[in-house]
Predict the structure.
Amino acid sequence: MNGAATRGMKLDDNVVRSMARAKVFKENVAPINSVDFTTSGDWAVTTSDDDSIRVYNCLAGTLHRTLYSKKYGCSTARFTHHSNNIIYASKNGWDETIRYHSLHDNRYLMYFKGHRESVVSLSMSPSNDTFLSGSVDKTVRMWDLRTPLCQGLLRSTGPPAVAYDPDGLVFAVSYSNAMRLYDPRSFDNGPFATFIIEGPRFESSHIKFSPDGKNLLLATNEKLVVVLDAFNGDQRHTFTNLTNNYSIIQEASWSPDSQYILAGSSDGTIHVWSVITGNEVAVWEGHPGPVSVVKWSPRASLVASGCTNLVLWLPTPPTSDQQQQHT
């Protein structure tokens, strides 16, 4: 496996259809509940319901290190601006602390206490050391890695999903079939825009701005993935051809060029759609169980997805016949 070889590769429908399993890791004994890449795309981290934190070298396609959080559990891991540091939430049912963790020497750098129920969403600002957390306690909190004190609080009417835009100038909060946009400098004044999402009631599981900042992606605990225009809230696409037989928390992700979306399904498949046409481009098969986490590398045509196994996907080289057809 050579993850570096795909950097700069232009994505198109044929490349997306050619994606295949390049590496399968089977070390986990319980479902993977989060995956994240460094900004460079060189490293990935996963957390699992087996209390493990695993770090992967994406260039070599190898498991680099395994750590454990046996006492507190772990979920929703996010890299900070340093490739050796992460923030993550507890998952033991009695501790709601967010931990700032050094992967290099396996020690805690800071604890962030304040939530009264499980933290289900974390988003690191791309421009500074602040981050957002959303909790089942129906609050959003703003933090700074340099201090354990909460920097701000918003209340919601449902478990909120949170996300910063690519420049760190805006953040979004989604709950109760609505998307709300805030200015981080004056969030206590309320949202400057609110977009209502039509359809049956759902809980937001993940939201993400597209890398170009033009659209918002919303994944839910139902058979539903929604794409909104980030400026006016127009509902550009609604994808419902997923299976989610267990109402599991499912994730969706943008391609680095903002042209494709992928999402996991409870039948072990991954669906990929074109943002331009709204059409389904491919369905990847290769997981023995529900796919609850998916993420496209920010710097390469590499995708990570997880059930109990972690799978790394790469494009397959075209055959000689395919090369002749394009000449």
